[in-house]
Design a protein that fits this description.
This protein is mostly helical and 413 residues long. The chain is built from 18 helices and no strands. It has one domain (2-196, 204-402): MFS general substrate transporter like domains (Growth Hormone, Chain: A). Helix content is 80%, strand content 0%. The protein starts with a helix and ends in an 11-residue tail after the last helix. The longest helix is centred in the first third of the chain and has 30 residues, at 104-133.
Length: 413
């Protein structure tokens, strides 16, 4: 591959692609996880309903998720560098365009479609590259590669609130759009594959295989023929649906409950901080203990946390506490699922395999915030959408108890 030859020539240290992955996922965090801070300003400017505003976020999540499969496939074929470079340009243009919003259609196209397209292009390729440089610590590398989503949202919550209060919500789109484009473009130059059969100094390839406890690689065609993949897909959808339903509305709920804009904004930051920290810690735990018990713990805690959000969230410290717990459990999904995908199906086709798996997040991202906003408009309260979220997130608990690693079908592929 072209990317492999580049790696041989440059002698790239293996921490550099990991840093590039962190930077690109941080740009994705800026794009996605502080949307609820913008709900009230958009309502005040245009008088749109919760559901109408949520449609922009839902479209962004849908496009972001659906683009992840072709982006991962192209990354496997041509290398992550070109995919992420072009994605950074598209992301920046779309986000900046959203700052000129005057109609819902413009917001949907600029933020929902164009920025979502760019975000999806830059998200999956680094997740496939970083663990290849860290085959001895794949879970940790995966956690680091996605930690930026939490970092971006931690920064974006108070940053967007401060910009809105000092000037206008439009400047959030303009300033942050420029920053995200630069971050992705610069990071793209670090995203190359290691040489074939490369292992870290002091280790042998057989040691790596033993640590990973892996079987053979599955092709993409073989992967999608297994029931294990589609059970993982359903679990990813349910966990993401519940998390995104809350994330898309948590600041809006805080404002409706009587909290100030900054108090509600800090709930977003509390969620984001735990969303970020859990990704690395979960990666460390995966390297030690595998995924099944961790899956069960996170999904069970998430059901409880979402169930407690409505009764406790009207108190600022209660909202912060529950937001932090929800962020902790939700963020773990983005380490657990790519790590499990690589463990079950091998790293060779991880770009296509995880790219398709991640489309479950995109579908959930479209449905969760939109259904949450519609239920709020219909009932006049956030109680019903939060109950729905808590119920949906219990489904993966049953799935994870039943799912097993796939067994190769020698007649397939």
């Amino acid at each position: 591959m072209v990317a492999d030859s580049i790696s041989k020539r440059t002698g790239m240290p293996r921490w550099l692609p990991l840093l590039g992955a962190i930077v690109t996922s941080t740009a994705c965090g800026l794009l996605l996880y502080a949307w609820s801070v913008l709900i009230k300003p958009l309502q005040m400017s245009f008088g749109w309903s919760q559901a109408e505003i949520a449609m922009a976020y839902s479209l962004c999540c849908l496009v972001f998720g659906l683009v992840s499969y072709p982006a991962g496939k192209l990354s496997d074929l041509y290398g992550a560098r070109i995919v992420v470079f072009l994605g950074g340009l598209v992301l920046s243009v779309g986000f900046i365009m959203a700052g000129f919003t005057e109609t819902k259609a413009w917001l949907y196209i600029s933020y929902g479609v164009i920025a979502g397209l760019g975000g999806g292009m830059i998200y999956v390729p680094p997740i496939t590259i970083a663990p290849r440089w860290w085959p001895d610590r794949r879970g940790l590398a995966t956690g680091c590669a996605v930690v930026g989503l939490g970092l971006g949202s931690f920064v974006m919550g108070p940053l967007a609130t401060a910009i809105i209060e000092s000037s206008s919500w439009r400047f959030v789109f303009w300033y942050v759009g420029i920053a995200m484009g630069l971050m992705a473009i610069l990071a793209s130059y670090t995203l190359v594959n290691p040489p074939p059969e490369w292992v870290p100094n002091g280790l042998q390839s057989q040691d790596i295989k033993k640590q990973q406890n892996e079987g053979e690689d599955y092709t993409f065609r073989e992967t999608v023929r297994t029931s294990s993949f589609w059970l993982l897909y359903l679990s990813y959808f349910c966990g993401s649906f519940a998390g995104l339903l809350v994330i898309g509305h948590i600041a809006g709920y805080g404002r409706d409950a009587g909290l100030t804009a900054m108090q509600a904004g800090w709930a977003v930051s509390a969620l984001a901080a735990c969303n970020s920290a859990t990704r690395i810690i979960t990666g460390l735990l995966i390297d030690k203990a595998g995924t099944k018990a961790i899956f069960l713990a996170h999904f069970s805690l998430q059901a409880v946390a979402i169930g407690l959000l409505f009764p406790l969230g009207s108190i600022y410290w209660g909202l912060w506490l529950i937001a932090a717990l929800i962020g902790w459990n939700y963020g773990a999904l983005f380490t657990l699922f790519p790590a499990t995908c690589a463990s079950y199906f091998g790293p060779k086709a991880q770009g296509a395999n995880y790219g398709l798996l991640f489309t479950a997040w995109g579908l959930a991202g479209f449905a969760g915030p939109l259904i949450g906003g519609a239920l709020k408009d219909i009932t006049g309260t956030y109680l019903v959408p939060f109950i729905v979220g808590a119920a949906v997130v219990t489904i993966p608990i049953i799935i994870i108890l039943l799912i097993q690693p796939p067994r190769r079908n020698r007649t397939s592929g």
